[in-house]
Amino acid sequence: MSWNTPNGGMRFMDLTRTSPVPIVPGDEIQCRTHPNNKTITNFFHRGYGGIPENLIINICAWIILVLSFCFARRYFGNYGRIGLIDGVRKRSTYHGPTTYEGWSTTVCSEPAPTGDSHELETSQVSHTNDEGMFTWVWSTVQLSDSQISSRCGSDALHYLKFQRALILLMIVFTFLSLSIALPVNMSGTKIDKEVNPFAVTTLSNLDPGSWLVVIHITLSLLFFVIGIYVMRKYSVGLRLKESGSYISKTLMITNVPLNMCNEDTLRSHFNQAYPDKRVEDLKVSHDTEKVADLEKKKKAVSEALAYVNKYNRNNKPMKMRPWKCGFLCSHLDCCDCCETVDARSHYQNEEGSLSRKLHWAKRKARDNPLGIFFVTFGTPEDAQKVLKDHTLRRRGNGISITKNPGRSELSTALNPKDWKVKFAPPAADIYWEHLRTNGKFWLLRWVVIHIILLLFLIFFSTPSVVINNLDFVLLPLKQELGKINPLFSEFLATILLLSTAALLPVLISLSDRFLSHWTRSDANMSVMVKTFIFLLFMVLLLPSLGLVSIDAFLQWTFSVNGTTRWDCVFLPDNGAFFVNYIVTSAFVGTAMDLIRISELIYYFGCLAFSKSKAEHATIRKMSLFEFGYGTQYAWIMMKFSVIIFYSLSCPIITMFGVVYLGMKHFVDRYNIYYAYAPSKIKKKVHITAINFLVTALCLLQLCFFFFSFLRRGLRDVTIYSLVGMAVTAAVIFGYIFFNLFRKFGPFLYKEISTEVREEPEDAPENQIGYNSPYDVCPVDPSGSNDNSQSERDNGEGTVLANSPCRTYGTDQPIDLVEDNRAVVIDMRRTQEERGYQNGPDG
What we know:
Layout (H helix, E strand, L loop, with lengths): L1 E3 L5 E3 L14 H5 L19 H25 L6 H9 L26 H12 L6 H8 L2 H8 L1 H33 L26 H23 L4 E2 L8 E5 L8 H11 L5 E9 L1 H26 L4 E2 L5 H7 L8 E2 H23 L3 E9 L2 H10 L3 E2 L6 E2 L8 H4 L5 E4 L15 H21 L3 H7 L1 H14 L1 H28 L6 H25 L5 H8 L14 H24 L1 H12 L7 H7 L6 H17 L7 H23 L7 H30 L4 H21 L11 E2 L37 H5 L29 E4 L4 H5 L8
Parallel strand pairs: 3-12
Antiparallel strand pairs: 1-2, 4-8, 4-11, 5-8, 5-13, 6-7, 9-10
Helix pairs in contact: 2-18, 2-21, 3-25, 5-25, 6-7, 7-8, 7-25, 8-26, 8-27, 10-12, 16-18, 17-18, 18-19, 18-21, 19-24, 19-26, 21-25, 24-25, 24-26, 26-27
């Protein structure tokens, strides 16, 4: 291996040498990117790396945070149970008929509880049994897989099962590390037990020439085999299928000329081009960003008006101050000069104004197609044939690549050779508001955002950079805390590390929102991969090498004596540092996940800025966010990688790894069921998490290869480690690129019959019918909709089963959710002749 040096020469990493690389005196100090017991207290022995102090402080902080959460949950407007209270009507994607409507909560109706009555009863029972201060703990423990799956979807269950698999793995690894690796480490004599008792338990206690390192290398290979076996068993529940076996009846087609993008034209084209293929349904997408925004506001006003009507029946007419913070001012009586008005009249006038604006916005939306439509055929085979005709493939000469779409008299105008055709993603997976994003502008946006993000990550890669830049603020604070009690000064550095490590990846999530991915799966995958890679560098690799940023990593890579940095990984202080990090993550980190400070601030901020109490029901719905599988997978797999990386060189870390995974599983179990709305993602997100686990196990082998290479050179033990790595690499590359070693891979695929092709169990896209979440037929500008009175009479904006919203020309109730921007709409001209029906509000 060779690379250029700054002087223009070449530097080689000699893999044939047999002498170890000595550590230059003073390098140990250069390796430290975190405090090295600068404020060790006298409560415990100095040689334990601050672990006992950190553990006690974390337990105390965890108790305080959990008690605060219990108090907020009990007395602050059902905070922490929003998903349980509003979750039944927030999304019903996983129950009942699901179509390409884009949304699934209606503003004027809710399907009667028929087949889902058991779920509703279970929800009511869970809510009834969850009224006490601490009863939520037992309620969370009692949750069954069927309850979680029925309310939150199969993806939530897959995520929690993956965590159980990690816990099982960590228990096995902990047993092997403590029973084998720990005694081997302690058998060494390199470190004085009286001087540094913690370092005696680490790999650095072994003599560089000791053959006992073979045991660690063998355990690293055994960990890989066990991990693959457990993940293979876990993948059975995912019901994975071989690549290319999935077929849907619905196609998503983009890049259609805007002037020809209407239902009648497209139906005529398919009837002529594929006369033997029956088109069951076809819907065109339009740009209804303004419509969605107005309908969201109109829904909020209608729900507030419903609350006022209910309030006035049993009390005096409600008064309000029709300004922001009106509710807060009314209770504090801080603005006597502000005139109060009748709440019912105010919301009625506001509803009428929004109805008139919505009337004109829907008229305008009809003239703005997106060049996207969804077409459903009679059978999956028909859809596959159409997809094949519109896909680039080689001609008979084997050289030219072209498409061969069916021809019709409209082909010249439609230009189907330029269409982009693919199987439609599940309707619940689509971000309908993002379909309006243009491909060319998206590419430019992607380049600009990633350049800015890359520049930031190069110079601010680790929390150490942020902490070092804040030294002028933090140093006086640490000194003052040290005078009061050294424990607080010790704890401050760990909290700052955890906080900055949690803050920096948020930038990745925020930057990714500007990319406007079309599906939730793509958004989760993008955030998941980038966050995991960034966290892996930020928290594990760079601090382990004694580097503070990628900029420092590049400088070290091209420096003359850069190879000595690998010895930083095996310093005893590194092990203590990461043990403290996992301890803090297990207690303070999981408690912060439970409280969800940012969402709590948002919730109370919205309450404070509300005009009246009538708007609080809508605010509770706005505070119900989707669970971010991508970000959560990246976080948990990064910390799992840290634990695995140091599991053999510092075996004590595995005990706290079990504690972290157990507490993280409990907190996520609670949040998914009680605090978040369901989120639909594709199985590739779960598959990527398995790939991250395999990456962590490979890093463990790489770690011991460099350890043996640096300490012994390329001989005996190092060759044994290199052979093990080569076998692992051969299995992985053969599995990925050549379809070999299928029985040794981490995925177990389901057998597919060649005669009967099955659909995914969670693929609602195969059901026909593309009911529109927004009817672009203009509504009555007076706002006197057929279902308005029934909606207003229903208290806090809850919905009635006896007043269904109507679709285009049908009597089927449909389900919708809030905040749609670009949706599938019906362009049938016959609806204009029938008159404007009442369209569902978002």
